[in-house]
Amino acid sequence: MSGLIGIGVGPGDPDLLTVKAVKAIQNADIIMCPASKEDRPSIALSVVSSLIDKTKNQEIVKLIFPMTKDRDVLEQTWEKNAKIMAEKVLSGKNVVYLTVGDPYLYSTWIYMHKDLEEKYPDMSISVIPGIVSMFTFASKVGVSIAEGAEKVAIIPSCYDLSSVKEIAKNSETMVFLKDGRYFDQVIDVLKESGFPDNSIFAIGQDLGTENEVIRKLTLGEVNDDTLTTKYFSILVVKRV
Ligand SMILES: C[S@@+](CC[C@H](N)C(=O)[O-])C[C@H]1O[C@@H](n2cnc3c(N)ncnc32)[C@H](O)[C@@H]1O
After folding, report:
1. 228 CB less than 6 Å from ligand 1?
2. What is the pTM assigned to this prediction?
3. Most distant CA pair in the chain: distance in Å?
4. What is the pLDDT of residues 65-124, one digit of tens each?
5. Once rounded to an integer, what is the mean pLDDT over residues 216-229?
6. Residue 153 near residue 180 (C-beta atoms within 8 A)
7. Is 235 left (phi over 0), alpha (psi -120 to 50) or beta?
8. How far are the Cα atoms of 21, 38, 133 from residue 73, in angstroms, in the given order?
9. I need a labelling partner for 206 at 20 to 30 A (CA). Which of 28, 131, 137, 138 fits?
10. 179 ligand 1 Cβ < 6 A
11. Quick one: 81 exposed, middle or buried, by C-beta within 10 A (0-12, 13-18, 19+)?
């Protein structure tokens, strides 16, 4: 039966895909994946490339999502790419869409899934979860995301610093995602919110790749040289 599956391919290491994800990718007629430009590689595709059997001649389709914050452009892009997926499914194909980490955490999949459900309520659409980057990071660095009654906040980049401050006052763990180039902005805010200097301050960059960087410091030890400059970065700050 034709259908669409949104697949979380995990944080970068092909050994961290679920068995279900591997089976779905290998059984697909068409593998779709996101990229920011036509001539840029798809990170999600690169994670699974060793699992693709070239002799099967599966069609690979890169869907382009320009890096922009313009809401109109974003909406048009989601709609256009959802339509490309729908046309393939309606023509009888088994389509998978790959996404880094898990499809339900800050992923383009979320918007396209909503659009497709609305326009094609009878279409078979399912999701296979993936290992979320922050949990991979937690296991690499040996920091628990939450213990006992601790509260956790997940903050995307381009912070509204006043709301980050309020959230930080009421959280034991803060996880910052989406863009390491903004991490320097939150250090003072964390201190002002009562995070003591001995709080764990752990940064992961390009996890699961050959360029992986991991740093585990305390909030008091952080300086410009210990920060990261890459989009693919995670920051976990935890009171001890
Ligand atoms: C658009 S969000 C997608 C999150 C993804 N769906 C997940 O479950 O982890 C992209 C952000 O996730 C984080 N991320 C995902 N994979 C990563 C990796 N391999 N190394 C470092 N950060 C990663 C970074 O904060 C990056 O900017």
Report:
1. no
2. 0.91
3. 59
4. 998 889 999 999 999 999 999 999 999 999 999 999 999 999 999 999 999 999 999 999
5. 86
6. no
7. beta
8. 31, 17, 27
9. 28
10. yes
11. buried
Reported as a pLDDT band with limits 50, 70 and 90, residue 143 is very high
CA-closest candidate to residue 91, choices 29, 21, 24:
29
What's the rounded mean pLDDT across residues 221-234?
A: 83
Spell out the domains of the chain, with CATH numbers in brackets.
3-128 (3.40.1010.10), 133-238 (3.30.950.10)
- DSSP string over 174-201: EEE-S-GGGGGGHHHHHHHTT--TTSEE
- Nearest residue to 88 via CA among 65, 120, 64: 120
CA dist., res. 86 & res. 37, Å (int)? 21
Alpha carbon distances (Å) from 87 to 120, 148, 153? 11, 48, 38
Residue 11 Cα: closest atom of ligand 1: 19
pLDDT per residue over 20-64, tens digit each? 999 999 999 999 999 999 999 999 999 999 999 888 999 999 999
User: Does residue 16's CB lie within 6 angstroms of at least one atom of ligand 1?
Assistant: no
Pocket perturbation via mutation, ligand 1, pick of 47, 97, 154, 177 by most ligand atoms within 8 A of CB: 177
